[in-house]
Every structure is written in structure tokens, then in C-alpha cells.
Amino acid sequence: MTNKNVFVSFHYGLDKHYKNLLNAWDANTAFNFKFTDRSVKVPINSNNASVIRAGITKKMKTARYCLVIVGQETHKSQWVDWEIRKAKELGLKLIGVKISNSNPSPSALLGSNATWARSFSQEGIIKALNQML
User: Fold this and answer.
1) How many CB atoms lie within 10 A of CB 130?
2) Can you point out the beta strands (E) in 1-133?
3) Residue 46 contacts by C-beta under 8 Å, 6 or more apart in sequence?
4) Quick check: 6 and 38 in contact, CB under 8 A?
5) What residues contact residue 32 under an 8 Å CB cut-off, 6+ apart?
6) Which among 69, 58, 54, 61 is positioned nearest to 13, based on CA atoms?
7) Going residue by residue through the chain (133 aa), what tens digit of pLDDT does each one get?
8) Are 7 and 38 in contact (CB under 8 A)?
9) Residues 42, 13, 66, CA angle at the centre, nearest 5°?
10) What is the DSSP string of 36-50?
11) Which runs of E-coded beta strand occur in 10-132?
């Protein structure tokens, strides 16, 4: 898999370990999984939503893809919803991956022509990213 510039959108409080798993797959040379994480790596030190949005937008502008990790509560996250809408506005290619098939999709992802990974696995995510060429 060629290296991809990916912004990862996820429920920070509940699903951060899945984002960390993506980074671990990338770091492991035994895996054919290469991506450059364009997500915010440290919390933006502000309570001001416009400052936070500007910081996220800056990172998103360096990405080509937006991978949305859909956990059990992700559909309730206003930040994930905003990130999906911003990704569409910026022309990023959307990929959704559900941790469990029973997890509800965020409303902004519905009807967005997103490509879906069949499972939260290396193979599923690589296949979805490669379909977005």
C-alpha cells in the first residue's frame, strides 16, 4: 500500500485506542499499512470552539482522506459530525469503518458517498483506501 495522507475522525473519549492501533500498524514494518496521520496529535489548548475548528481545519487541509472510526457513541459526537462536514467541504475522500456492524453511523456520513471498510482490520481499511484512488 502506498502512503496515504489521512485525517482520522473518531470519538476521542471512547475510541482513541483504535486510532492508536492505526498508528501502530503504520509503525510495524511487518505490516503493509502505510499512512501519514494528519490528525491533531495534541489537544488544542483552548476552550474556544472557533480556535479548535481552525486547528482541525489546518490539519485536514494537509490530508487527502478522512477516515471516520465509527464506535458505539460516535453518532452522538458533534465534533465528528463537524469534521465529516468539513471534510466534504474540503473535498476529502471519506472512508467509514465501524468497530461493530451494529454501531449507528453519524448523520453527516449518511448519503455522503463514503467508501466503507468491511471491518476494522488492516485488510479492510487498506482495501477501502485503495478504492478511493
Assistant:
1) 12
2) 4-9, 35-37, 65-70, 93-98, 115-117
3) 52, 55
4) yes
5) 1, 122, 126
6) 69
7) 667 788 999 998 899 899 899 888 888 877 777 776 766 655 555 577 887 888 889 989 989 999 999 999 999 998 899 999 999 999 999 999 999 999 999 999 998 999 999 899 988 998 998 887 6
8) yes
9) 65
10) EE-S--S--S-S-HH
11) 35-37, 65-70, 93-98, 115-117
pTM: 0.89
3-state SS, residue 122? helix
Asked whether 105 and 73 are in contact (CB, 8 A), the reply is no
Residue 56 cell numbers, joined: 482541525
76: cell is 452522538
- The CA distance from 88 to 49, in Å, is 19
Amino acid (one-letter) located at 76: K
Contact between 65 and 130 under an 8 Å Cβ cutoff? The reply is no
